Amino acid sequence: MTEHTKPTDPDQENDSENKESAQSILDFGSALTKTPHGNVYCLTIIGQIEGHNTAAQGAKTTKYEHVLPLLAKLEESGEVDGVLFLLNTVGGDVEAGLAIAELIAGMTKPTVSIVLGGSHSIGVPLAVAARYSFAVPSAAMTIHPVRMSGTVIAAPQTYNYFQRLQDRIVDFVSKHSGISPEDFQALMLQKDDMAADVGSVLYGEEAVRMKLIDYVGGLSDGLQCLYRQIDRRKGQPAEP
Fold first, then answer.
1. pTM of the predicted protein model
2. Is 200 a known active-site residue?
3. Which residue out of 113, 121, 133, 200 is catalytically annotated?
């Protein structure tokens, strides 16, 4: 018996592609936008940075196993001219956060980060990893010493591990922002800013004054900065 197949409806194919594209944006919190300057990919880093262990059910997370290959793909893609990172994160897994930050910092394509809401704890290295960083005035950034959850062995080796991990964070932040290692370390260990802990909370303008973040600004400011980078990379005269 001969099977008869119905001809494919182009409208149905388009609807299917649109649904897949919309689902991709929902799943990964990302979108590719065509602009007169080039194609801009917007990637959100939100909630908790999830590492090797799965976060609690119901928690909003940024999964490093999704973000790392995506960043590598964006760097290699000929269709992407610049990447905009929107951050609103409580922090999370230190090594996963550092891995994402190192990959962002290693990108050759134009990048801009904007801190919206908050970029706390390991979110601080993520905020400064892009070529240029912005924070809205109401944005908050919590800076504190490294902590570990789970079983901790009270031994000198454990303390040394914590200290070396903390040194990696201080080194990364100071190399990718204007703040000195000494000033950042002082913010980590400050005793007067947090009621039940040591550390500091900086808001948008404070973070800029401390040279942790480059500029105070929102979406339009970040996009204009990204467009200027793209134009320079293409050899076009950048707009003032």
1. 0.80
2. no
3. 121
